[in-house]
Amino acid sequence: MALPIMAKATAVWLVDNTTLSFKQIADFCGLHELEVNGIADGEVAQGIKGFDPIANNQLTQAEIDMAEKNPRHKMKLKHNPAADGEEKRRGPRYTPLSKRQDRPAAILWLVKFHPELTDGQISKLVGTTKPTIQALRERTHWNIANIAPIDPVALGLCKQLELDKAVGKAAAKAAKDGTAMSDEERLKLVSTEQSLQMDDEPRLPSNMSGLETFSLSSSDEEEKKNEPVVDADSLFNLPKGGGEDDEDDDA
């Protein structure tokens, strides 16, 4: 589905100027419903000026009126004849200049916590090149000593849904190829939605497997049986029958 230009600014305008539901705005702008809810609450897109889709020939007033009357109606982007024949650009996504310095930290995080992702998947997620990814994998990057791994979602370089989708594809490919995975790797391949539904379950690291039933209770009881019984006299080594000596000293 084609999306409007300046999608977040368009969502801001629709929230402020229409009675459309959050889902309708999210579907039209390619955003998550919770993200639109955050725009309405003032927690998301602060400082972004609304972008009028009607004045910019992306939406008609009739389409908005129809959607306001029917909450199930999905708005469609106004057809632009000048865009016919254009294809989506292939290759790494565009990353704003202000965030390009954060890409090495995001790549290092993906390489460390999701080694199953291919260079192509990482390139699409954060908008980088394969030589950069390879340098960070091999720790030959010129600035590797000063780079700390940071979640690309927290840096704003990709969305959580995009990361989950890429990890899900990696999991499906691993299952298809019959590649054996450890418990830690399986946990990494669980999506955010699935992990929220999982029961909390204590797990031991793989290097401590086999120690689940280890106990010191039996040996402690045997040691206590072999210990000598200590009474007050033996502990303080008090002299016996010292009453007469004490009276002589007083005299």
UniProtKB/TrEMBL annotation:
Residues 77-99, 191-251 are annotated as: Disordered. Residues 206-218 have a biased composition (Polar residues). This is DUF1013 domain-containing protein. Pfam families: TrcR. It comes from the Bacteria. It comes from Neptunicoccus cionae.
